[in-house]
Amino acid sequence: MTSRGREEKMKEAKNKFVYTILALVFVSFIEAWKNVAFGGVIDDGVDLFEALANLALFFAAPVAIFFLTLAGYYYITDAGDEERVKKAKSIIINTLLATIILLAAYTFLLDLATL
After folding, report:
1. H or E element at residue 56
2. Closest CA to 103 of 46, 66, 54
């Protein structure tokens, strides 16, 4: 590919290409996970939403544990640095809020699935 002096257009095209590939990888990952978790059988949209909610919880728990550990590390090794303490508290609060929002969404989806 040549840009013929239009580097901005070339960069934009490359970004679109990369995002398209990432989307295809994500869809492939969901499909593979569906085959492993459900034997390839998801009958309706409710099961799909439930599967996606379970997948979100599957990835969110280790991420939340990582950030809480990171915040604890910052808090323990602050050595009197108020910025590090502030950063640790911010990470803890944001992680807990994100976890509460994710659990609320999961509960909402489960209630929606039972209607």
Report:
1. helix 45-76
2. 54
Residues 54 and 102 in one domain: yes
Q: Are 102 and 67 in contact (CB under 8 A)?
A: no
Same domain, 33 and 48: no
Nearest in space to 34 (alpha carbons), one of 63, 62, 55, 20:
55
The whole-angstrom separation of Cα 104 and Cα 98 is: 10
How far is Cα 110 from Cα 50, in angstroms, rounded to an integer? 7
Domain range for 27 is: 1-41
**One domain for residues 105 and 56:** yes
Low-confidence ranges of the chain (pLDDT < 50): none
Contact indicator for 113, 46 with CB cutoff of 8 Å: yes
Note whether 45 and 111 are within 8 A (CB).
no
Q: In the chain, how many domains are there?
A: 2
Tokens of 23: 């989307």
Q: For the whole model, what pTM was predicted?
A: 0.56
| Biggest alpha carbon–alpha carbon distance for the chain | 58
**pLDDT score, position 89:** 93
